[in-house]
Write a structure and sequence with these properties.
The protein has 426 residues and is an alpha+beta fold. The chain has helices spanning 26-45, 90-99, 102-105, 142-158, 177-189, 197-204, 208-213, 217-224, 235-250, 294-297, 312-321, 341-356, 370-379, 390-395, 413-424, and strands spanning 49-50, 56-58, 74-76, 82-85, 108-120, 126-138, 164-170, 256-257, 268-278, 281-290, 305-311, 334-338, 384-388, 397-402, 408-412. Strand 14 (397-402) and strand 15 (408-412) form a beta hairpin.
């Protein structure tokens, strides 16, 4: 026999997760699963179908995408095509809409998704998370905006999130935004020295709406006197926006007109954010709005696009801030208590047989004395325990114990299922 052999590790120590990456542990996923369940149910009620696009696409698809100093995660494949990991879902969805000619198939395509996204942040860390959201392509009346917001407020309030608020704005379209941007440029030109470094950079690079969104106190003070976009909207934008607000009124949904809400770099027209207030502060639950130039920007016909997206980390931190915890534990009908190895083996068969009769049995893996097991059954409010000791295992019998009264009876394997069903009233 000799000395036992020792394995040499392949790596000295398993490397930790990458900075910026996140593991989703069972305790996180319980809440996430509850979210997804609600998401699926509401999506179907509101007529959205689920869609999934690949994690990687030709990098040219993301030409519209820019998020400050964040960068795409890219690599070149063997055919020399630059490939990028999707940083957000909307572009893949737009490609799908075009590639499969959805415009010829239906007037409106209404989709929901939850899918991983990744990018590189300014610190050079790979950020990865799950994004979920809704996307509508095609002819949409302003009531579609109101209805989408209605769905979202329902989703978050059903999750138990308190003090929800809707911040809404209209940032204009390709027709009316340029004139407004000119006004903003003139306005900020004289006030450059009151702007924070980042906003000054935005000014120099013509990202003028970005200055309005800056939360720096000095920038906010300057921005509060700035020209207001509402005064510059073209007739189409104005009519659409009034339609959205009227729809919200009709649904009895309160909103705040908020100039600081400017959407994404690819946003146009109506943009909005849903926020939650707790004692600890304000939480952004996600943002949405129109991206009406997107399909045309990717070579398609002019097509309105309306959507909302948020990420797993935003939702999880909001749930934590609101002190909301979920549990998806299955209701157990009977508790299995095997004593010893042979009994454990027999319990495997019993578990399966119970399962075949739609009776949910507890997990029985792991050690524990009969006393602790029965205590566990009691605390889980399980009325029936099935005990198999060594003797029972050999003789093919099972002890049925009424957990509350402590009364015990012996049954054969053949009879036990019927007896359990009878006691469960099935
Ligand atoms: Zn316009
Ligand atoms: Zn600023």
């Amino acid at each position: 026999m000799g000395r036992p052999k020792k394995l040499t590790p392949t790596v000295e120590k398993a490397p930790p997760r990458l900075p910026g990456a996140m593991d989703l542990l069972p305790e996180h996923l319980v809440s996430w699963d509850v979210c997804l369940e609600k998401l699926q149910t509401l999506s179907h009620t509101f007529g959205f179908s689920k869609i999934e696009t690949p994690i990687m696409e030709d990098a040219r698809l993301y030409s519209f995408w820019s998020q400050g100093t964040d960068q795409l995660l890219t690599f070149t494949d063997q055919k020399n095509t630059l490939i990028a990991v999707k940083p957000t879902n909307i572009f893949g969805l737009a490609r799908c809409y075009l590639e499969y000619h959805f415009a010829d198939r239906e007037k409106v395509s209404k989709w929901f998704y939850h899918s991983p996204v990744a990018w590189m942040n300014s610190a050079g860390e790979t950020k990865q998370t799950m994004e979920f959201g809704f996307q509508i392509f095609g002819q949409t009346a302003p009531i579609a905006d109101a209805q989408l917001i209605n769905l979202l407020l329902k989703l978050f309030s059903e999750l138990g999130m308190p003090n929800l608020s809707l911040e809404i704005n209209n940032i204009g379209c390709i027709e009316c935004q340029p004139a407004y941007q000119d006004q903003l440029r003139n306005y900020f030109k004289d006030k450059k020295y009151d702007l924070c470094e980042e906003s000054l950079d935005d000014f120099e690079n013509n990202r003028l709406l970005q200055i309005l969104a800056c939360t720096n106190l000095s920038c906010s003070t300057v921005a509060s006197e700035a020209p207001v976009i509402i005064d510059f909207l073209c007739e189409n934008c104005r009519r659409h926006f009034i339609g959205v607000l009227e729809g919200l009124d009709e649904l009895g949904l309160a909103y705040n007109l908020n100039q600081k809400v400017i959407g994404k770099p690819w946003s146009k027209r109506t943009v909005f954010e849903i926020r939650m207030r707790t004692e600890a502060g304000e939480w952004l639950l996600g943002s949405g709005g129109h991206a009406d130039d997107l399909i045309q920007g990717l070579g398609g016909l002019p097509t309105p696009a309306l959507g909302f997206s948020t990420t797993l980390d935003k939702i999880l931190s909001a749930l934590e801030a609101a002190n909301l915890k979920f549990s998806t534990k299955n209701k157990v009908d009977v508790f299995l208590v095997p004593l010893g190895d042979l009994a454990a083996k027999k319990t495997l068969r019993l578990f399966t047989e119970l399962w075949n009769h739609n009776i949910v049995a507890s997990e029985f893996i792991g050690p524990g004395s009969i006393k602790t097991q029965l205590k566990l059954a009691e605390s889980n409010k399980v009325a029936i325990a099935l005990i198999i000791g060594q003797k029972e295992a050999r003789e093919g019998t099972v002890i049925l114990r009424d957990v509350r009264s402590g009364m015990q009876e012996l049954f054969t394997y053949e009879r036990i299922i019927e007896e359990v069903k009878k006691r469960l009233g099935r």
